[in-house]
Design goal:
By secondary structure, the protein is mainly beta. The protein has one helix at residues 13-19; strands spanning 2-11, 24-29, 44-54, 58-64, 76-79, 82-85, 89-94, 109-127, 134-138. The chain has one helix and nine strands. The mean pLDDT is 86.
């Protein structure tokens, strides 16, 4: 069995030198079939890092998404029966006693100058066979 774990922007090698490792910006976690966005998958986009914060448990950056793909940013969480939008961000590090999702609650400080980073829109696919779970990124359309 396989499923789309999330879709978003996965950064190129030059941008990884700025932000390090294999970071991404999640646009939608566990999308349903109607939320698949094959029309932009594989395309390159430039995003901007516009804020930064570290509260001792989580550190992350605030991301500005280009207008042409803002409509695909559906990242939300549920609280008290309501869907709450999550500001576009990227988690850089977390302490042992924290979780990635708490980066959304940081009080980001605005940078003097935005930093441009480039990546491609793609899906993170999770395969769950009987023996072990594996994950891979694809820049191809999925059905």
């Amino acid at each position: 069995m396989s499923r789309i774990l999330y879709y978003g922007i996965f950064f190129d090698d030059i941008s990884k030198k700025i932000i390090s490792n294999d970071f991404h910006v999640t646009f939608r976690y566990l999308p349903n079939k109607d939320e698949r966005i094959n029309d932009v998958v594989g395309r390159k986009y430039t995003l901007k890092i516009v804020g930064i914060e570290n509260n001792g448990k989580n550190s992350g950056v605030l991301i500005e998404i280009p207008d042409e793909i803002k409509k695909y940013y559906l990242h939300r969480y549920e609280k008290d029966g309501k869907e709450i939008p999550i500001i576009p961000h990227m988690t850089l590090s977390i302490a042992e006693n924290s979780k990635n999702r708490y980066t959304r609650d940081l009080d980001f400080k605005t940078l003097d100058e935005p930093i441009e980073i480039t990546g491609r829109f793609g899906y993170l696919i999770e395969e769950v066979p009987e023996d072990k779970t594996s994950r891979y990124i694809t820049f191809e359309k999925v059905s």
